[in-house]
């Protein structure tokens, strides 16, 4: 198979060009390139969130702070900069915590981790006060809340705020499913219930139906971590229970496979999830093969990151199993 493309799971040449343009640039240059790119996306919430997420702005903290202090900065730009700064601080907090289980985090790291997240959350709330329906600010406040551990009512309030920007906002749904997973604040039942409900209620042509196969990839992770119910089904039994529902979700989004799925910023993420789930099913391997072809060798995070320490190998193995070049 062709070389796997990491960290660029989209089919947007303009975003490819932006990523190439910022490579090797300092923080000020990155900000100068990203802000104008975001301007025409303000009425395209999924695309706006995606572009706000993929550029590493850690070098741009001081330029962002300087722009926020300038009295002539337009309100829309101010909201975008606050959102970028808040998301950058979330990444900084994650670096402090590390990627391992909570039990592996040094006690000395927790106060700084929480302080950075609280600052990020406050900055994102400022963006929402300027622009209440800012999709990035609302989505990233869900991410901040993962570490802050807010109440159940607050979780749902933040999620519904994100949905005012767009009812099917992909990353907001992805984060909410993570919240409801047993490895965070939920349970197997809550996570699968959410995934099934979204798949059933989403409008035709929207890849947010991929929350159902995403729930299954999260379940594998929870089982591996020992966070799922001890008496719960095996991942394979859970898969068999939902095979027909996932196939129906695939058709609801992408149709019969005689033409490409409707364009969407997160289409390749969804294709990766459906390819993994259906490509390993007993009944729908050919449909999984079609989804895998649509990924265009661009690999997503989930499900592959939960399946192997070498996600690209798991992705390549499915290509081999299904006979996809």
The largest sheet, given as strand count, sense and whether it forms a barrel, is: none
Envelope shape: globular
Gyration radius from CA atoms, angstroms: 20 Å
* Overall helicity: 55-70%
Secondary structure tally, helices: 16
Oligomer: single chain
Termini gap: 4 Å
Q: What's the overall average pLDDT, rounded? A: 94
Low confidence ranges: none
Strand composition percent: under 5%
Number of strands: 0
Quickly give the structural class. mainly alpha
SSE succession: HHHHHHHHHHHHHHHH
Describe this structure as you would to a colleague:
The protein is mainly α. The protein contains 16 helices and no strands. It has helices spanning 13-22, 27-38, 45-54, 61-69, 75-97, 109-130, 135-148, 152-165, 170-179, 188-201, 211-225, 235-254, 267-279, 285-294, 304-307, 311-322. The model has no long low-confidence stretch (mean pLDDT 94).
Short description:
The protein is an all-alpha fold and 325 residues long. The chain contains 16 helices and no strands.
Structural topology:
Elements (H helix, E strand, L loop, with lengths): L12 H10 L4 H12 L6 H10 L6 H9 L5 H23 L11 H22 L4 H14 L3 H14 L4 H10 L8 H14 L9 H15 L9 H20 L12 H13 L5 H10 L9 H4 L3 H12 L3
Helix pairs in contact: 4-5, 5-6, 5-7, 6-7, 7-8, 7-9, 8-9, 9-11, 10-11, 11-12, 11-13, 13-14
């Amino acid at each position: 198979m062709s070389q796997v493309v990491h960290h660029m799971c989209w089919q947007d040449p303009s975003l490819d060009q932006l990523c190439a343009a910022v490579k090797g640039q300092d923080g000020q240059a990155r900000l100068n390139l990203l802000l104008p790119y975001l301007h025409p996306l303000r009425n395209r919430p999924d695309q706006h969130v995606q572009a706000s997420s993929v550029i590493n702005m850690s070098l741009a903290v001081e330029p962002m702070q300087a722009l926020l202090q300038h009295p002539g900065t337009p309100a829309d730009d101010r909201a975008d900069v606050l959102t970028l700064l808040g998301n950058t601080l979330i990444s900084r907090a994650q670096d402090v915590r590390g990627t391992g289980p909570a039990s592996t985090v040094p006690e000395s790291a927790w106060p700084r981790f929480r302080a950075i997240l609280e600052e990020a959350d406050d900055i994102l709330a400022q963006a929402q006060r300027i622009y209440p329906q800012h999709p990035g600010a609302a989505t990233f406040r869900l991410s901040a809340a993962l570490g802050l551990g807010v109440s159940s009512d607050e979780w749902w309030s933040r999620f519904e705020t994100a949905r005012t920007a767009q009812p099917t906002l992909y990353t907001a749904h992805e984060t909410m499913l993570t919240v409801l997973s047993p490895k965070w604040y939920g349970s197997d039942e809550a996570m699968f219930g959410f995934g099934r409900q979204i798949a059933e209620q989403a409008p035709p042509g929207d890849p947010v139906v991929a929350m159902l196969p995403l729930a299954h990839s999260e379940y594998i992770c929870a089982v591996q971590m020992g966070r799922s119910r001890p008496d719960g089904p095996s991942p394979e039994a859970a898969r068999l229970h939902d095979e027909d529902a996932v196939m129906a979700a695939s058709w609801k989004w992408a149709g019969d496979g005689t033409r490409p799925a409707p364009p969407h910023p997160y289409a390749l993420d969804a294709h990766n999830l459906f390819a993994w789930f259906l490509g390993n099913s007993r009944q729908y391997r050919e449909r999984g093969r079609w989804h895998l072809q649509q990924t265009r060798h661009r690999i997503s995070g989930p499900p592959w990151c939960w399946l192997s320490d070498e996600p690209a190998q798991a992705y390549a193995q499915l290509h081999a199993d299904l006979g996809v070049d």
